[in-house]
Task: inverse folding
Protein backbone atom coordinates (compact mmCIF):
# COMPACT_ATOMS: atom_id res chain seq x y z
CA UNK A 1 0.00 0.00 0.00
CA UNK A 2 1.10 3.53 -0.66
CA UNK A 3 1.60 6.11 2.01
CA UNK A 4 -0.18 9.41 1.61
CA UNK A 5 1.73 12.31 3.03
CA UNK A 6 -0.13 15.57 3.59
CA UNK A 7 2.11 18.61 3.41
CA UNK A 8 1.26 22.20 4.13
CA UNK A 9 3.03 24.78 1.98
CA UNK A 10 2.04 28.36 2.49
CA UNK A 11 -1.27 27.29 3.90
CA UNK A 12 -2.06 24.92 1.03
CA UNK A 13 -2.49 21.23 1.44
CA UNK A 14 -0.89 18.86 -1.05
CA UNK A 15 -1.05 15.11 -1.20
CA UNK A 16 1.99 13.13 -2.13
CA UNK A 17 2.21 9.41 -2.61
CA UNK A 18 5.48 7.93 -1.49
CA UNK A 19 6.38 4.29 -1.96
CA UNK A 20 9.20 2.54 -0.28
CA UNK A 21 11.04 -0.48 -1.58
CA UNK A 22 9.38 -2.64 1.08
CA UNK A 23 5.89 -1.59 0.03
CA UNK A 24 6.64 -2.52 -3.55
CA UNK A 25 8.29 -5.78 -2.46
CA UNK A 26 11.61 -4.70 -3.89
CA UNK A 27 14.84 -6.16 -2.65
CA UNK A 28 17.04 -3.16 -3.24
CA UNK A 29 20.20 -3.96 -5.12
CA UNK A 30 23.48 -2.06 -4.81
CA UNK A 31 24.16 0.49 -7.55
CA UNK A 32 27.51 -1.11 -8.47
CA UNK A 33 26.22 -3.14 -11.44
CA UNK A 34 24.56 -0.03 -12.92
CA UNK A 35 27.70 2.02 -12.39
CA UNK A 36 29.74 -0.71 -14.08
CA UNK A 37 27.41 -0.70 -17.11
CA UNK A 38 27.42 3.09 -17.39
CA UNK A 39 31.17 3.50 -16.89
CA UNK A 40 31.87 0.74 -19.43
CA UNK A 41 29.59 2.52 -21.91
CA UNK A 42 31.49 5.73 -21.21
CA UNK A 43 34.79 3.97 -21.87
CA UNK A 44 33.45 2.51 -25.12
CA UNK A 45 32.19 5.87 -26.36
CA UNK A 46 35.44 7.57 -25.35
CA UNK A 47 37.57 4.99 -27.18
CA UNK A 48 35.42 5.43 -30.28
CA UNK A 49 36.06 9.17 -30.24
CA UNK A 50 39.75 8.67 -29.48
CA UNK A 51 40.30 6.18 -32.31
CA UNK A 52 38.36 8.40 -34.72
CA UNK A 53 40.62 11.34 -33.95
CA UNK A 54 43.84 9.30 -33.89
CA UNK A 55 42.95 7.73 -37.23
CA UNK A 56 42.64 11.18 -38.73
CA UNK A 57 45.85 12.39 -37.14
CA UNK A 58 48.10 9.51 -38.18
CA UNK A 59 47.98 7.46 -41.36
CA UNK A 60 49.82 4.56 -39.71
CA UNK A 61 47.03 4.32 -37.15
CA UNK A 62 44.44 4.60 -39.91
CA UNK A 63 46.16 1.74 -41.74
CA UNK A 64 46.25 -0.33 -38.55
CA UNK A 65 42.52 0.24 -38.05
CA UNK A 66 41.80 -0.82 -41.62
CA UNK A 67 41.08 -4.44 -40.70
CA UNK A 68 38.61 -4.86 -43.56
CA UNK A 69 39.43 -3.15 -46.84
CA UNK A 70 35.83 -2.80 -47.99
CA UNK A 71 34.95 -0.89 -44.82
CA UNK A 72 38.24 0.96 -44.30
CA UNK A 73 39.48 2.33 -40.98
CA UNK A 74 35.90 2.49 -39.68
CA UNK A 75 36.10 -1.30 -39.33
CA UNK A 76 38.87 -1.09 -36.75
CA UNK A 77 37.45 1.93 -34.96
CA UNK A 78 34.15 0.19 -34.33
CA UNK A 79 35.50 -3.30 -33.64
CA UNK A 80 38.15 -2.13 -31.18
CA UNK A 81 35.73 0.27 -29.47
CA UNK A 82 33.23 -2.51 -28.91
CA UNK A 83 35.96 -4.87 -27.68
CA UNK A 84 37.24 -2.27 -25.21
CA UNK A 85 33.65 -1.51 -24.15
CA UNK A 86 32.91 -5.16 -23.42
CA UNK A 87 36.29 -5.69 -21.76
CA UNK A 88 35.72 -2.69 -19.50
CA UNK A 89 32.31 -4.06 -18.53
CA UNK A 90 33.74 -7.52 -17.85
CA UNK A 91 36.46 -6.01 -15.65
CA UNK A 92 34.15 -3.63 -13.76
CA UNK A 93 31.29 -6.04 -13.06
CA UNK A 94 33.05 -8.33 -10.55
CA UNK A 95 34.63 -5.33 -8.85
CA UNK A 96 31.38 -3.41 -8.39
CA UNK A 97 28.70 -6.13 -8.38
CA UNK A 98 27.95 -6.12 -4.66
CA UNK A 99 29.03 -2.60 -3.88
CA UNK A 100 27.22 0.68 -3.54
CA UNK A 101 29.45 3.47 -4.77
CA UNK A 102 29.06 7.28 -4.79
CA UNK A 103 26.72 7.66 -7.73
CA UNK A 104 27.40 11.32 -8.44
CA UNK A 105 31.14 10.76 -8.75
CA UNK A 106 30.66 7.81 -11.07
CA UNK A 107 28.24 9.79 -13.24
CA UNK A 108 30.68 12.69 -13.40
CA UNK A 109 33.37 10.37 -14.78
CA UNK A 110 30.93 8.72 -17.20
CA UNK A 111 29.64 12.11 -18.38
CA UNK A 112 33.18 13.29 -19.11
CA UNK A 113 33.97 10.10 -21.05
CA UNK A 114 30.75 10.28 -23.06
CA UNK A 115 31.20 13.99 -23.79
CA UNK A 116 34.77 13.41 -24.99
CA UNK A 117 33.53 10.55 -27.14
CA UNK A 118 30.93 12.76 -28.80
CA UNK A 119 33.54 15.48 -29.40
CA UNK A 120 36.03 12.97 -30.81
CA UNK A 121 33.54 11.77 -33.40
CA UNK A 122 32.67 15.29 -34.58
CA UNK A 123 34.32 16.05 -37.95
CA UNK A 124 35.06 19.70 -37.23
CA UNK A 125 37.05 18.51 -34.22
CA UNK A 126 38.96 15.55 -35.59
CA UNK A 127 39.79 17.37 -38.82
CA UNK A 128 41.86 19.76 -36.72
CA UNK A 129 44.32 16.90 -36.31
CA UNK A 130 44.29 15.74 -39.95
CA UNK A 131 47.72 14.62 -41.12
CA UNK B 1 8.36 -1.45 -59.00
CA UNK B 2 11.18 -3.34 -57.35
CA UNK B 3 14.18 -2.83 -55.13
CA UNK B 4 17.68 -3.93 -55.99
CA UNK B 5 19.65 -5.97 -53.47
CA UNK B 6 21.54 -2.86 -52.39
CA UNK B 7 18.39 -0.78 -52.09
CA UNK B 8 16.80 -3.51 -49.99
CA UNK B 9 19.70 -3.54 -47.54
CA UNK B 10 19.80 0.26 -47.44
CA UNK B 11 16.08 0.32 -46.69
CA UNK B 12 16.45 -2.37 -44.02
CA UNK B 13 19.28 -0.41 -42.40
CA UNK B 14 17.85 3.08 -42.57
CA UNK B 15 14.09 2.85 -42.81
CA UNK B 16 13.16 -0.37 -41.04
CA UNK B 17 15.79 -0.79 -38.30
CA UNK B 18 16.85 2.84 -37.90
CA UNK B 19 13.32 4.09 -38.30
CA UNK B 20 12.02 1.62 -35.73
CA UNK B 21 14.57 2.77 -33.18
CA UNK B 22 13.78 6.44 -33.68
CA UNK B 23 10.03 5.89 -33.60
CA UNK B 24 10.15 3.66 -30.52
CA UNK B 25 12.32 6.09 -28.59
CA UNK B 26 9.35 8.09 -27.35
CA UNK B 27 7.75 4.94 -25.95
CA UNK B 28 10.90 4.04 -24.04
CA UNK B 29 11.26 7.59 -22.74
CA UNK B 30 7.63 7.70 -21.63
CA UNK B 31 8.05 4.34 -19.93
CA UNK B 32 11.11 5.47 -18.01
CA UNK B 33 9.71 8.89 -17.19
CA UNK B 34 6.44 7.52 -15.87
CA UNK B 35 8.08 5.16 -13.38
CA UNK B 36 7.18 7.64 -10.68
CA UNK B 37 5.57 6.73 -7.38
CA UNK B 38 2.59 8.99 -7.94
CA UNK B 39 1.84 7.57 -11.40
CA UNK B 40 1.91 3.84 -10.89
CA UNK B 41 -0.20 1.36 -9.02
CA UNK B 42 0.93 -2.01 -7.76
CA UNK B 43 -1.48 -3.67 -10.16
CA UNK B 44 -0.22 -1.73 -13.17
CA UNK B 45 3.40 -2.09 -12.23
CA UNK B 46 4.02 -5.63 -13.38
CA UNK B 47 2.53 -5.08 -16.80
CA UNK B 48 4.40 -1.82 -17.23
CA UNK B 49 7.74 -3.27 -16.18
CA UNK B 50 7.41 -6.25 -18.51
CA UNK B 51 6.60 -3.93 -21.39
CA UNK B 52 9.52 -1.64 -20.55
CA UNK B 53 11.97 -4.53 -20.21
CA UNK B 54 10.99 -5.98 -23.58
CA UNK B 55 10.94 -2.53 -25.16
CA UNK B 56 14.39 -1.35 -24.11
CA UNK B 57 15.98 -4.73 -24.80
CA UNK B 58 14.47 -4.77 -28.28
CA UNK B 59 15.58 -1.23 -28.97
CA UNK B 60 19.15 -1.92 -27.88
CA UNK B 61 19.19 -4.97 -30.14
CA UNK B 62 17.74 -2.95 -33.02
CA UNK B 63 20.37 -0.26 -32.50
CA UNK B 64 23.14 -2.86 -32.76
CA UNK B 65 21.61 -4.38 -35.89
CA UNK B 66 21.27 -0.92 -37.43
CA UNK B 67 24.93 0.04 -37.01
CA UNK B 68 26.22 -3.42 -37.96
CA UNK B 69 24.22 -3.57 -41.20
CA UNK B 70 25.08 0.04 -41.93
CA UNK B 71 28.82 -0.30 -41.39
CA UNK B 72 29.48 -3.80 -42.71
CA UNK B 73 26.92 -4.15 -45.51
CA UNK B 74 25.73 -0.76 -46.81
CA UNK B 75 28.78 1.43 -46.15
CA UNK B 76 31.17 -0.57 -48.40
CA UNK B 77 28.84 0.14 -51.34
CA UNK B 78 28.84 3.82 -50.42
CA UNK B 79 32.63 4.11 -50.28
CA UNK B 80 33.49 1.83 -53.21
CA UNK B 81 36.07 3.39 -55.52
CA UNK B 82 35.06 3.78 -59.19
CA UNK B 83 37.30 2.12 -61.79
CA UNK B 84 39.84 4.33 -63.55
CA UNK B 85 38.34 6.48 -66.27
CA UNK B 86 34.73 6.00 -65.17
CA UNK B 87 32.57 9.05 -65.72
CA UNK B 88 29.31 7.55 -64.51
CA UNK B 89 29.52 7.77 -60.71
CA UNK B 90 25.91 6.83 -60.00
CA UNK B 91 26.96 3.57 -58.36
CA UNK B 92 29.71 5.23 -56.31
CA UNK B 93 27.96 7.63 -53.91
CA UNK B 94 31.10 8.79 -52.08
CA UNK B 95 32.96 9.59 -55.28
CA UNK B 96 29.82 11.20 -56.69
CA UNK B 97 29.46 13.54 -53.71
CA UNK B 98 33.15 14.45 -53.71
CA UNK B 99 33.15 15.17 -57.44
CA UNK B 100 31.18 18.38 -56.95
CA UNK B 101 32.14 21.15 -54.49
CA UNK B 102 28.44 21.80 -53.94
CA UNK B 103 27.89 18.29 -52.60
CA UNK B 104 31.27 17.36 -51.16
CA UNK B 105 30.35 18.52 -47.65
CA UNK B 106 27.68 15.83 -47.54
CA UNK B 107 30.55 13.38 -47.37
CA UNK B 108 33.23 15.42 -45.59
CA UNK B 109 30.93 16.52 -42.80
CA UNK B 110 27.71 14.54 -43.11
CA UNK B 111 28.93 11.01 -43.72
CA UNK B 112 32.05 11.44 -41.61
CA UNK B 113 29.90 12.40 -38.62
CA UNK B 114 27.15 9.87 -39.30
CA UNK B 115 29.38 6.83 -39.65
CA UNK B 116 31.03 7.47 -36.28
CA UNK B 117 28.37 9.00 -34.05
CA UNK B 118 25.87 6.26 -34.87
CA UNK B 119 27.91 3.71 -32.90
CA UNK B 120 27.40 5.67 -29.69
CA UNK B 121 23.70 4.85 -29.78
CA UNK B 122 23.77 1.05 -29.21
CA UNK B 123 26.46 1.34 -26.54
CA UNK B 124 24.38 3.74 -24.47
CA UNK B 125 21.10 1.95 -25.19
CA UNK B 126 22.65 -1.30 -23.95
CA UNK B 127 23.54 0.31 -20.63
CA UNK B 128 19.94 1.46 -20.23
CA UNK B 129 18.60 -1.96 -21.20
CA UNK B 130 20.79 -3.62 -18.58
CA UNK B 131 19.67 -1.19 -15.87
CA UNK B 132 15.98 -1.61 -16.67
CA UNK B 133 16.17 -5.40 -16.89
CA UNK B 134 18.35 -5.86 -13.80
CA UNK B 135 16.81 -3.28 -11.46
CA UNK B 136 13.20 -3.33 -12.68
CA UNK B 137 10.83 -1.95 -10.04
CA UNK B 138 13.71 -0.45 -8.09
CA UNK B 139 13.79 2.36 -10.65
CA UNK B 140 10.55 3.64 -9.11
CA UNK B 141 12.18 4.34 -5.76
CA UNK B 142 15.73 5.02 -6.99
CA UNK B 143 15.62 8.44 -8.63
CA UNK B 144 19.34 8.49 -9.39
CA UNK B 145 19.17 5.35 -11.48
CA UNK B 146 15.97 6.45 -13.20
CA UNK B 147 17.30 9.87 -14.14
CA UNK B 148 20.64 8.44 -15.29
CA UNK B 149 18.75 5.97 -17.49
CA UNK B 150 16.65 8.75 -18.98
CA UNK B 151 19.70 10.88 -19.78
CA UNK B 152 21.51 7.94 -21.41
CA UNK B 153 18.36 7.07 -23.35
CA UNK B 154 18.07 10.63 -24.68
CA UNK B 155 21.76 10.64 -25.64
CA UNK B 156 21.36 7.31 -27.43
CA UNK B 157 18.43 8.76 -29.34
CA UNK B 158 20.32 11.97 -30.13
CA UNK B 159 23.22 10.04 -31.66
CA UNK B 160 20.80 7.91 -33.68
CA UNK B 161 18.81 10.95 -34.75
CA UNK B 162 21.92 12.73 -36.06
CA UNK B 163 22.94 9.61 -37.95
CA UNK B 164 19.43 9.01 -39.28
CA UNK B 165 18.88 12.56 -40.41
CA UNK B 166 22.24 12.80 -42.15
CA UNK B 167 21.69 9.38 -43.68
CA UNK B 168 18.39 10.51 -45.16
CA UNK B 169 19.92 13.66 -46.64
CA UNK B 170 22.93 11.80 -48.02
CA UNK B 171 20.73 9.12 -49.55
CA UNK B 172 18.66 11.84 -51.19
CA UNK B 173 21.80 13.37 -52.74
CA UNK B 174 23.53 10.12 -53.64
CA UNK B 175 21.41 6.99 -53.17
CA UNK B 176 22.80 3.49 -52.87
CA UNK B 177 21.50 1.67 -55.94
Result:
Amino acid sequence: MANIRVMREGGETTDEIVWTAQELDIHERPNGPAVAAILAAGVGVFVLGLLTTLSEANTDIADFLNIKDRVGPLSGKTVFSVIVYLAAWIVLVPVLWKRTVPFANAMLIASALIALGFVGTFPKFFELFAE
Amino acid sequence: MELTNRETWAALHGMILGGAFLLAFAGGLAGLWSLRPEWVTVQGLQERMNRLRIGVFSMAAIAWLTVITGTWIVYPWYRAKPPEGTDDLANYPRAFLLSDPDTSEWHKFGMEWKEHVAWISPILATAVAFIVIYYGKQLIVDKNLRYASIVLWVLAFSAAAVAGLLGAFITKSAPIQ
